[in-house]
Amino acid sequence: MSDKKKTQVEEINRNMYDIRNPEEYSYKTQGLTEDVIREISAQKNEPQWMLDFRLHALEVYEQLEMPSWGPSLHELDMDKIATYVKPKTDMKRSWDDVPEDIKNTFDALGIPQAEKESLSGVGAQYDSEVVYHSIKEDLKKQGVIYTDFESAVRDYGDIVKKYFMKCVPVTEHKFVALHGAIWSGGSFVYVPKGVQVDIPLQSYFRLNAPGAGQFEHTLIIVDEGASLHFIEGCSAPKYNEINLHAGCVELYVKENARLRYSTIENWSKNMLNLNTKKAIVEKNGKIEWVTGSFGSKISMLYPMSVLKGDNSKSEYTGISFAGHGQNLDTGLKVAHIGKNTSSVMNAKSISKDGGACTFRSSVKVTPGATGAKSSLSCESLMLDDISRSDTIPANEIETDDVVFSHEAKIGAISDQTIFYLMTRGISEEEARAMIVRGFASPISKELPLEYAVEMNRLINLELEGSIG
């Protein structure tokens, strides 16, 4: 048996993730022009300040260049992207009121069941609009706000205006400017001082329309001494045309607060995933990123922690899995600004069938960030000799009072280990799967049980096929 045949993994059947509903919508825009933006804003009945913001973002977008590094984005043609697809429903507070075809899709993905068993609030977005949102009454009584972003603009306009795209300004890069111009959907969360949200909130983003973009905006404010675990899930069926995801996540972690932001991304392999995420962390605050990147043709995703306050902390635990035709370019950026700050990064990647995984890290320690500590560990597992894995660190250390470490490992599955497991009665296919699951276990154990099961299921799907 040839080595190639041993490691060949066939294209998987993505089962429930590839559910496709007929493309039905009440309103749709194509391309990116000033008229399109005015139409979107009018559909949402937005205040003038938001329309002005969108038009300014469009100007910035037109001035900025496409990224000249990383994966090629030559297939993206914004004139062909459906920039706004409004489903034939408004947002519902009761799951029973959601249209049957949309409800069946989320039912198959396990969202309502997860809400009943393990979540304190759920938001569900379908194409460009949130179709369902709920939060448990006990959290409401404590002053927790969790709603769709359009409602937040209307109902909490002063708070939104204070924070919206201040953490991630539209000048940051071209796709942030794009997002600022045509954002739609997303979630707004405010956790008051001292409130501990013990059970996670989750927003799930489902893109159904072919050739469409999804541009949701997530804004979370965890006030002083409060804590929250927020889970983000994403998926889409596979089409033979390019889809685009350019969402934006802005996180504000106040003094002595803690936020864990977990993401399981399972986009289809015709998706360009160009998401942007950033957290600003105040004194004694802590941000934790837990990320699983599956699917998508191209991903360019680099969450950023700005450790602004003294003794603030950032922890990142992430895994990416690239198969045939996939180029997943992911990583983390950290800026140490306050004194005695710390950052820990633990990244893992798996590549097969010629897939490419790249991990980029950027650590900046400013002159005033004395006592900073930063540790980076990056491990890559390649399942064949035609795949690729790269680690690209960029470090800017501007003080001598710092402890910094960086470790990178790239390896393959050992034939000796496979042989040992097979002597114990385990098939070659299951032996390889066991090794991969063990490699990924540090990430899955950081997720709530239901989502660890979800991630392991995705890994099994990616490994399904003939490995022997």
Would you write up a description of this structure?
- By secondary structure, this protein is of the alpha/beta class.
- Helix content is 25%, strand content 37%.
- The chain contains twelve helices and 25 strands.
- The protein starts with a helix and ends in a 5-residue tail after the last helix.
Quick overview:
This protein has 468 residues and is of the alpha/beta class. It has 2 domains: 14-415, no CATH class; 416-468, no CATH class.
State the shape: globular
Spatial separation of the terminal alpha carbons:
8 Å
> Structural class of the secondary elements?
alpha/beta
Rg: 22 Å
Instruction: State which percent range the strand residues make up.
Output: 35-45%
Would you identify the regions where 5 or more consecutive residues have pLDDT less than 50? 1-14
What's the tally of helices?
Answer: 12
**How many structural domains are formed by the residues?**
2
The share of residues in helices is 25-40%
Question: How many β-strands, per DSSP?
Answer: 25
Biggest sheet, in brief? 13 strands, mixed
The quaternary organization reads as single chain
On the 0 to 100 scale, the average pLDDT is: 86
